[in-house]
Amino acid sequence: MSSWLDYTINGLIVGNVYALVAVGLALIFGVSRLINFAQGSIYLVGAYIGWVAVVQLHTPLPLTIIVVAAAAAVVGLVIERFGLRPLQNSVRIAPLLATIGISFVLDQLVMLTFSPNPRALPSQLPDVRFQLGGGTIGPLDLLIAGVGITSALLLFVFLRYSKLGWAVRAASQDRDAAMQMGVDVNRVNQAVFGIAAALGGVSGMLVGMYYNQIDTAMSLQATLKGVVAEVVGGAGNVPGAVIGSLLLGLVESYGVAVFGTSYRNLFAFLLLVVVLVLRPNGLFASARQAPPEPLTGTFIAPSRPVRIPRWALAVAAAIFAVLPFFPVSFYVLQTLINAWLLGMLALSLTLVAGTVGQVSLGHAALLAIGAYTSALLSLTLSVPVGLAVIGGGLMSAALGTLLISPSFRLRGHYVSIATLAIGEIVSLVILNWEGVTRGPIGISGIPPLSLFGYDLISPSSVYWFSFAVMVVLALLQGRLLTSHLGRSFRAIRDDDIAARAYGLSLNRYKSLAFIFGGFAAGVSGGIAAHLYSYINHETFNTQQSILALTVVILGGLGNVVGAILGSVALVGLPEVFRIAAEYRILIYGIVLLLLVRFRPQGLLGTI
Amino acid sequence: MAEQHYPMLSLRGLTRRFGGLTAVDAIDLDLARGELISIIGPNGAGKTTLFNLVTGLDRPDAGTVRFEGQDITGLSPERLAAEGIARTFQLGRVFGNLSVMDNVLIGAHTRLRAVKPAVPVIGPLLELGLALLRPSSVKAEEERLREEVKAILARFGERLLPRIDQPAYSLSYANRRRVEIARALALKPRLLLLDEPTAGMNPTETAEMQALVAELKAEGLTILLIEHKLEMVMRLSDRVIVMDEGKKIAEGPGEVVRTDPKVIEAYLGHGLSGAAEQESAA
Ligand SMILES: Nc1ncnc2c1ncn2[C@@H]1O[C@H](COP(=O)(O)OP(=O)(O)OP(=O)(O)O)[C@@H](O)[C@H]1O
Ligand SMILES: [Mg+2]
Fold first, then answer.
1. What is the pLDDT of residues A182-226, one digit of tens each?
2. Would strands B85-87 and B191-195 be described as parallel, antiparallel, or unpaired?
3. In whole angstroms, what is the distance from residue A277 CA to residue A267 CA?
4. At A319, is the secondary structure helix, strand, or coil?
């Protein structure tokens, strides 16, 4: 029985750490209705600053905590001032995309500075354990609990008794009314970003000490956990975030106790999906409330799409089609094959995120479903590869839509969280469902692409195949957009309430968009599996989801030609300029930020 | 037919609370076929909330909504649109990135038949297939609706027709309001709810809108109108209902209601707001 107490203590300690992240998220959401996807990156920065302080500067523990809190707060202030304040009057999608971009830039900067290899972060505390009832507790546990409780008290005093704290509370209750009463919203934003960042940074440092290890993968995990805790507690609800965090820590700890470590994250995300479906306003939300009538069409930037004449598109397609007849290098073909595969994913995402307004951050999961289905169909059932790829597309359409359907009644930022979590669930299921997916070993020996019995081995045949598939998908999508479904999708994106009032069922049309888009993404994943011949649960990761999102924004939301142009640009330009692989994601993040700030409609405009 | 005995719309004890505030408080209302009733009242009286309850965008805490004798309380807005209830929104909710044509075509969505076969389970997949394949029946239906949209837009003179392919966000405020009404008409509604259709319009535009509503009434459409401009209310309404703090405080012909001391007090009690303000501005 004693171990149960250990698991409880462990759950509460980990919950305390999550609380430090979640409280920051809740403060920010409260005043700016924004889910700060960069919160995990600040946590990461905190951990590495802690490492520098402890290992290189040999600071004593209290000073380490102060240094980390101060440095992280500065990062938070910079994000607020230069990343988000310029977007104050832009459309709602802009700050969401900006925090995603900032997160990628920060993570990459940390990775480039400190290398992706894990590092040890010593805790500077004596390594003893005290007996407590039937379990044990160490000094670090006490430190984490102490920091958690102290921060909560400080925050309470700040919010309750200081003038700025009063302004924060006023702004989070009714921003417009607070502004009319003379509350300086910029100062309030600064305050919450500074506090949130300080708490997040300290939290990252403590976790690093707790596991005696830090690495750059911590960032996304922290964002996800913090968001889960915050949503469970009710977005914007600070005490709710604390309770949600402790609950999440306990659920994970008991889950690990019963099922083993590899299930830890699965429990977190299942908890999120269950809460989003059953109580989308959190466990502690007050009575149901319809959102007050907002101004219309403010989610994406209005724009006039650039009209490209059909003959020009036909000429461009013809040039790409005859390219392999010319003496181009294998390297060029290979690059373009990657662009066409990314193009299919971008077509899918531009439909879902651009045309229907569901900004999916887990789109790589659709690739994975398509890839695994196609690989397994051809390997275990000996289905011809051409059919297997189509099977991958269909499975992705069906399963992807089914998995995403709980998020159909969510809006804006919540959709992004839900899709991010669902994407993680898919990769965790792939990792753990060894009977079918072969778990961490992955699937090797996947047969090469073949069509009607002919293997497509030569680079030009693979090139033609992937190009042709992408063109067909693009033509179909173009046709879809000019049908009544195209206008229905766009109407739902622009104003889902008005759309419902005119008889458009959100479930029906979001499903159709995900079915169509899921097919394209699944086919892309299927083809990729046969090209790579080996896949595992990490082949299709969040970085690809973000890359696809950047492509979609670059090309113009919902813009079919834009998605392809964006893919060629983002795959091709780094090759042209011979940019080293490790800098590419940094550049994608910067491109995303610049686009959101200076050309939100992308190159060819929103459709 | 038995149907004839029922009023078009009938509300009984309709109530909606937000926390401690009762936004709509036990409202009863009967609206006969072809009748036009105006709902007036100071800001925050609960008029828009009442519309939300009737159109399914919000659910009442108590009370019932009947439409042609059927209980429709708590049905989804999609269902109610299909039943023939159309509305416009106070703040103007056009689809900003859709063209005028597409905005109004969305209004006709519930009337799509060829492309939306009423088949259970696989219906949506058929719809996707038909949208991509576009057999002649689907093309013909789309063509017919487009012609209809042009006819509806022609009712607004030269205001909208020349801008038919422009995105709605590029229109003037008044034109966006017109697009909303055109969209509602494209549904071929049996009951039309207009939430302050002339808000923010100048006197000429208001007069045009008033003429249009009078025309719709003359054509036999049943209309529930929220309006602050009393001049217009007096001319158009068969009956006027006055709301204040969620309650119905007066009901009757315009002239009678206008001189009702309770009504005058409600407006004065709220200072120079709502109708009083609009009146003095006009
Ligand atoms: N979603 C909501 N949550 C909380 N309170 C609400 C909500 N919607 C409306 N209210 C409140 O209900 C009351 C009635 O609002 P409603 O919008 O129905 O008034 P109205 O009569 O339409 O006013 P106006 O003439 O200004 O349009 C107001 O006090 C408003 O603040
Ligand atoms: Mg109103």
1. 888 888 889 999 999 999 999 999 999 988 889 888 898 888 889
2. parallel
3. 15
4. helix
Among residues A173, A201, A218, the one where a domain terminates is A218
Question: What pLDDT is recorded for position A285?
Answer: 65
pLDDT, position A271: 85
- Give the Å distance between the CA of B261 and the centre of ligand 1: 24
Q: Whose CA is nearest to atom 5 of ligand 1?
A: B18
Nearest beta carbon to residue B98 from set A479, A483, A494: A494
For residue A271, the distance in angstroms to the closest alpha carbon of chain B comes to 28
Selected from 3.40.50.300, 3.40.50.720, 3.90.1170.50, 3.20.20.140, the CATH number assigned to the domain covering B1-84+189-282 reads 3.40.50.300
A530-537 mean pLDDT: 93
CA–CA dist B9, A415 (Å, integer): 37
Residue A99 vs residues A40, A76, A199, A423: alpha-carbon distances, Å: 11, 11, 18, 19
A402-419 b/e (C-beta count within 10 Å ≥ 16 → b): ebbebbbebbbbbbbbbb
d(CA A414, CA A356): 15
Burial class (CB in 10 A: 0-12, 13-18, 19+), B255: exposed
- Looking at the structure of chain A, the number of domains it has is 2
C-alpha span between B28 and B8 (Å, rounded): 14
| Contact (CB<8Å) B106/A491 | yes
pTM score, whole prediction: 0.89
The pLDDT of residue A294 is above 60: no
Report the distance separating Cα A105 and Cα A409, nearest Å.
31
Determine the pLDDT at residue A138: 83
* A313 in a structural domain: no
Token pair in block for residue A560: 């079919």
* Inter-chain CB proximity A302 and B115 less than 8 Å: no
Is A5 contained in some domain? no
- Supply the residue whose CA is at minimum distance from atom 30 of ligand 1: B44
| Chain B nearest C-alpha distance from A482 (Å) | 9
- Concatenated DSSP letters of A576-587: HTT--HHHHHHH
Mutate: best of B22, B53, B54, B95, partner A, most A CBs <10 A: B95
Q: What is the ipTM of this complex?
A: 0.92
Helices (H), A212-329: 218-233, 238-259, 264-278, 310-322
For residue A239, is pLDDT > 80? yes
Burial A386-396 (b: 16+ CB within 10 A, else e): bebbbbbbbbb
* Residues A214, A332 within the same domain: no
Q: Determine, yes or no, domain membership for A488.
A: yes
Residue owning the nearest CA to atom 18 of ligand 1: B46
Q: What is the pLDDT of residues A320-373, one digit of tens each?
A: 999 999 988 889 999 999 999 999 999 999 999 999 988 898 999 999 999 999
- Among the bound ligands, name the one nearest to the CA of residue B277: 1
What are the residues whose beta carbons fall under 8 Å from the beta carbon of A473, sequence distance 6 or more?
A: A344, A347, A520, A523
**Domain hosting residue A119, numbered range:** 32-218
* Residues A359 and A494 placed together within one structural domain of the fold: yes
Percent of chain A with pLDDT over 90: 48
Interface of B with A in 60-99 (CB under 8 A): 76-78, 81-82, 86-87, 89-98
Strand segments, DSSP code E, in chain B are 9-18, 21-31, 36-40, 62-67, 70-71, 85-87, 191-195, 222-226, 239-244, 247-252
* Domain presence at residue A380: yes
According to CATH, where is 3.40.50.300 located in chain B?
Answer: 1-84+189-282
Residue type present at position B233: V
Domain C-terminal end among A169, A196, A218: A218
Token reading at A368: 């994975």
Question: CA dihedral defined by A399, A400, A406, A408, rounded to 10 degrees?
Answer: -130
